[in-house]
Batch of 3 targets.
Target 1
Amino acid sequence: MPEIHGRPGQVWGSVVIPASGKATMRIVGDTLHTSTKTSYGLEKKEIHTRIQNIDAVEVVEGRLWWLLFLGIATLLWVIGIVFIVLFFVLKQNWIVVHTPCSHLILFYKKSENVQGFCTNLLNLSRQLNAPAIPRQQPPAQATRPTNTRPAPTAG
């Protein structure tokens, strides 16, 4: 599974929220290409990440906490109840690729083979980060030094 499709995600504080548009994560050689295009084509982003720099890959299925926060904030109006109900009804699936510099987030549909993609990504990262095995040199032939005399033998 060299590629997955979905919607881009972004982080506001410590909350992950889906953004509008389309996103694709694709394994190409030793890099992870992430391309994002927002709705109406207003913004287009290409990110090329070395797979060796990937620390972890997170696959998450959970609630959208921003709906609960929005519901509590607007509870005085009737619309707050709608947001709270949506919080309990809706579930989202997303993948987070952690690198030292950034977090790449993609919201996907349940039918995507994300586990296979993550396994391939982490296996490739493990291979690229494995220490190089030194070549074994043939054993050196035993030779005696040329500037010493042989020991006298009894006889």
Note: The helical segments are 65-73, 79-89, 114-129.
Target 2
Amino acid sequence: MKNLFQYIKGTFVLVLLALVVLACETKSKVEQEKHHVEENIVELTQAQFEQAKLRIGSIEKRIIGEELQVNGMIDVPPQSNISINMPYGGFIKFIDMLPGTSVKKGQLLAVIENPEFIQYQQDYLEGLANQEYLKAEFDRQKELYAEKVAAGKTFQQAKSIYLANEARIKTMKARLKMIGLNPTSIRNGKVSTSTNIYAPVSGYVREVYTNIGKFVNPQDVIMDITNADDLHVELTVYENEISGVKKGQRIRFSLANAPNQWREAEVFLVGRNVREDRSVTVHGHLKEKYEDLLPGMYVSARVETDSREVWAVPEQAVVRYGGKHFVFGYVEEHNIEGGEKTLTFEMLAIRTGNSEDGFTQIEFLDSTTEYKEVKLVTQGAFTLLAKAKNTEEEGEGHGH
């Protein structure tokens, strides 16, 4: 009987201890949940609200694209890189260009001097001088041959000399135009030992390969000019993602030195061959002209492969803490002692989706949340986050 009593007593003690432990754990969980709720609540006075320049708005439906993130560079097509040369060579008499110099179509680039230019002009003028006489002799022999007065051989000889001179005149005229000399001016007596080279397009000088006094051969490049009007985006897309890229899709891109400044382009050509690194080239036309873009610049780009209507908020309304994303919902407003207003905000956990044009797609982790009823902070969310977490840390500090 004594043993039975001791057994019951021991069991009672164990049960009592278990109830005490359970009660403590329950209390601890309640306190933790209460602390968790409180740490996500921020209260501001009206003065603090105005000083922080907070703004309250609503979640809205927006069309946001699903984007493919890729890299690339600014480039120009081959026909926009132009090499300037002189087909017949000569000495550089004048040049006033530096790499990066902006040029307009028709602007003087250089002056080339060559003594042979005089000979070319002389040959042309002599051909013109003989033209009238040879034409008259040809017409005379033609008439005599028709009247059977002159021999056919004499007529054919006159015809051959006349036509050969005409061909020579045309050839020399084409040569003078290629050099840059004006045949009409030469015919009027203006003979020159030099010729001007003008810009064939508007753009900028990429490189200069010569200087004043240097002789350039026909195959030598004097300078390179790039037509800036044909700049485009050249992107690298890998083969497992290329099926989603189509002509006409929107491209947003930024430069390495300005990652938050987005510019726009549009897909106009998708490559048809896969390179050794399993990538395909995609070309995009710029939506507008950007003066600061140069060929070879690295870009980070996003290709909009699809779009749909989603719930979205301004990007600055979303904050990140502890590896999670939140927005601050406006809970209530009430008066405290002295009649001063107090505004209450709560951190609401969300998932983020795609971002576009300063807006981010969101989804509340609490599936019961009514999106249309939520009022949230659209500007100044980081200020609230700092206040919420600083207050929490201060409270924990006092507890130690």
Note: Residues 72 and 235 are 4 Å apart (CA to CA).
Target 3
Amino acid sequence: MGVNIAAINMEWLLEYLDKNLEDIKGDYICVSNVHTTVTSYEHPSYCSIQNGGLMAIPDGGPLSSVGRKRGYQNMERTTGPSLMGEIFEISAEKGYRHYFYGSTEETLELLYKKLNENYPGIQIAGMYSPPFRPMTEEEDKAIVERINEVNPDFVWVGLGAPKQEKWMAEHQGKIDGLMLGVGAGFDYYAENIKRAPEWMQKSNLEWLYRLVQDPKRLFKRYLVTNTKFIWNAMIRGK
């Protein structure tokens, strides 16, 4: 459907990031799912953003399932929240520094507290909740300087798709850290919402768990985008 989804698994990704982190700072990783893939298929400019970063990883189970059917047997679902957890686990040992851009002040406060409780020794270089309006050029320049001053390794961007991917693309080469758009990842680690049980994640049913949690917002999205994905990627083979 036009998006260059990386045919990877978590083990490969963690090894890649560890070996290449210094060289890939300033770039971004898209955490891609059915919704972002269908949006990319319908909007070429957004597709260019998905393909314009370091890679687009298969957050959505259907993406890795299609990849395996097309011959990439080692491809596995690599979710944003799972990647966050894997990196948080080794952060104290590796000395990784983290910056969190997005969400609300309340969620960031909770996130700070929970991360320090659950990952002793984690270095949180900074956090920023941007205003719910377009930022001025001066404001944007100031936040870029603020982020770069604290020298983060990872800049986690939680603005939701497609806003977070657009923000990362606009700041490619300007931010001195690896940017990753992780959607609801902030809420998971702030413990505002719970992730699906492991068996649902492995069965590609995490979308159903999220739907039950937030049916009003997600029902139409899942109904429309899932149908379009099944038709285009699975039936038509695009």
Note: The mean pLDDT is 93.
